[in-house]
Amino acid sequence: MASRAGTVAQPQDLVDLTALLDAYYDVQPDLGDPGQRVAFGTSGHRGSSLKASFNEAHIVAITQAIVEYRAGQGITGPLFLAKDTHGLSEPAQNSALEVLAANGVKVLIDARHGYTPTPALSHAILTYNRNAPAGAPQADGIVVTPSHNPPADGGFKYNPPHGGPADTDATGWIANRANELLENGLRGVKRIPVAEALEAETTGKFDFLSSYVDDLPSVLDLNAIREAGVRIGADPMGGASVDYWGEIGERHHLNLTVVNPTVDPQWAFMTLDWDEKIRMDCSSPSAMASLINRMSDGANYDVATGNDADADRHGIVTPDGGLMNPNHYLAVAIDYLYRHRTGWNPSSVIGKTLVSSSIIDRVAESLGRKLVEVPVGFKWFVPGLLSGEGAFGGEESAGASFNKMDGSVWTTDKDGILLALLASEITAVTGKSPSQLYKGLTDQFGDPVYARIDAAATREQKAALGKLSPSDVTATELAGETITAKLTEAPGNGASIGGLKVVTENAWFAARPSGTEDVYKIYAESFKGADHLKQVQAEAKALVDGVIS
What we know:
Helix content: 25-40%
Number of helices: 17
Shape: globular
Oligomer: single chain
Low-confidence stretches: none
Mean pLDDT: 96
Distance between the termini: 35 Å
Strand content: 15-25%
C-alpha cells in the first residue's frame, strides 16, 4: 500500500475530542506504570489523556509542585501562564490556574483570551525581570504545550526567571514532588474552582502579543524587509502564532499574508507526517506539504514559513529550493548574523547541539568565532544568551534563538517566529534566498549529507548506551577514516551527552537512546556523499550494538 505521508488527513486520522477531554477529567493514572507517572523530558511533561499520561491529576500535582519549588527558590514575582492550541491545553491551563490561585500565586494570563507562543512567554518573563527594580521579586512562567506533537497530546513546561527551559535540577525536583502528591491521593494540593480562580485578586491579565510584536524592531531589521518589499507567506499551521503573524504584518507594514489562519484542535487540514500521523512538524516535508505545494504551484512569495503549535520551531520554504533542511538554514543564519550584527559582543561564541551539522563548524572557523558544542536540549544555551557571550544558539530540530541588535537577550527559549522573519531579512539585505546562500556555503566548505535513523534496543541496552565512556569504544576507524574523537561528554561544556559521538575528518555519528521507544537514534553526517553516509550508519550501528550488547 502506498504511503499517505504528505496527503491531507482523513476522518479516521482525527482525534475524538470528546473522548480526549472526557479522559482528561475521568481517567486516573496507574502509578505502577512508569509511562503514567510525571516525567520531564527536555521540554516538560508530555503525554495524552487517552494513554493516562496527561490527565487532570497530573496537572494539579505538577502545578502544586511548581508552587512549592518556586517558594523554596524565593521566586515571589508573578507567574506568566500561557497555552497553545492543542485540545488538552485549555483544560490543563484551567487546572493549573485553580491550583495557583488557591496558593495565592499572582498569575498573569493572556489579556486577549488567546493563544501564546512559547517565545512570547520567554520574552515576557525576561522583559518583566529586566524592567523590575534591583532586588524586586522575579517572574517565571508555565506554558501548556506539547510543541509539534500530535493533536491527542498535551504538554506542560516550566520556565524559571531566566526565561528558558528549566534545568534538570528543577524538573527533577518538580517531577519527584508531583509523583509524591499523586501517590498520596493529591493530599497537599490546594485548589479552588476555575470561576473563582479567574476572579481572584491574584489573577491578572497581560498582553503577550503586543509585548512581543512591538519589540521585534530591537532584534530584526524590519525596515530592510519593508523597503525591499519582501513577499512573505506565513503558515501558523493551526498553532499559537496565528494572531501574531497578522499583527506583525499590520503593525510593521510588511507585505505579509497569513496563509492559513484556521485553528482546529483536530488539525483536520494538516497533511500527514512521514508515519501517517498528524504532527505539526514544520521541519518535515510531509507535514509541510501544503505550503511546499503552494510555493511550487506559483504562490507569489519570496519566502514562505511555517511554525509548529507553540511556534518554537521554524520551517523555511524558498521558491528555488523548497523546504530547507534545518541544518542548512542554521548555517546560513549563523553566517549572516555574525557578519551583520555589529552591536554583538565581538567575542560572542556560536552555540550548537552536538548532533547539528558540521558545516556549522566550518562556518564558525571562517568567521573567526569560537564554536560551543553542547548536548541536546535548548537549556544549554540559556547562560550564553542571557550574558551575550553566546549570541546564537541552535539545534538540528529547527529550534534556535539569537540576541537583540545591541547584544542583549531577546528570548532564552526557541523562537520559530524570529527565525522565520530572519529569512525575510536575509533575503532583503543580501538579495538572495537562504537556499541560494546555502549553496554558496557548500561551494566553499563542502556539501554534507545528513540523516537520522533508529535502531532497535532493549531498555537495558539503552541504559548501557547512556553510561558509555570513550574507553568502551576500541575501534580506530569509521567508514575508511581514522577516528579523531570519541565523545560521551559535550566538548563545549563537559556535560554528559547521554550517549556517544564518534568523529572523523569528513564524517561523524552520534547515538542516543530514545526516552519513549525501544530504539536508539543514530545521527550521522558525511562530507563524502550519500554512499559514504550509508557506510557510516551501518558501521555506527555495528559499533554501538557491539558495545551495549
